[in-house]
Amino acid sequence: MKKAILKYFAILLLFVSCKTPQMNNEPANSFLPMQIGNQWRIDSQNYTEIQDTVRMDGKLYYKFYSLIGGDAVSTVYLRIDENNQLMESWPDSTGKQYTRAKFNSKVGDSFFTLNDGTTNDYKVTVIEKTDKKITFSFEMIYHDNMKGESHQVTYVKGQGLDDDWKSIKIDGKMVK
User: Fold this and answer.
1) Could you give the 3-state DSSP secondary structure of residue 2?
2) Residue 17 DSSP SS3
3) 126 CB-near residues (< 8 Å, 6+ apart)
4) Across residues 44-64, what is the average pLDDT?
C-alpha cells in the first residue's frame, strides 16, 4: 500500500513539475515590460509604477498606479496575452476587456479597442513599426464630436510607453 501511494505521488510530482510553455516576457523583448516594481518617472509628482498583480476571469493582470501632477491618481490593470496583445480590464467589470495594442501588427493594420461600435470604441491603426518601436494612432470614429480627431501612442521595446520619462526602472535596473 505504501509503495502504491509513493508511486502515485511520484507520478503526480512529475506532472506538477513539468513546465508549460511560457511567453517570452524578457524585458528586452517586450514593448511593455511587466514586473512588480517597474517604474516610469518624470519627477516625484508624475510617475507610473507597477504595484501589484490581480487575477480577473482567471487571467493575471498587473496593477499600474500613476500619480499625475501630484494630486491626480490613475490605476489601470494590464496584461499581455498569448497573442502579444496589450489588454486592459477592471476588477468591477469582469468579462470586459479593452485592447490597447497589438504588438504583432504590421504598419497599416487596424483593430478596434472594444469591438462593439459604441462611442468609446477607438479604431487603432499601426502607423510606424521598427524592431525597437511601434506607434499606434487612435481615432474615435463612432463619436459625433470627436470623429476625425486622433492621438498617437508609441511603445519602445524593453522600456514601455514612449513619453518624457526622466528615469525608467525595469527588472530592478535603471534603463534610462
Assistant:
1) helix
2) helix
3) 102, 105, 106, 107, 108, 109, 110, 134, 135, 136, 137
4) 97
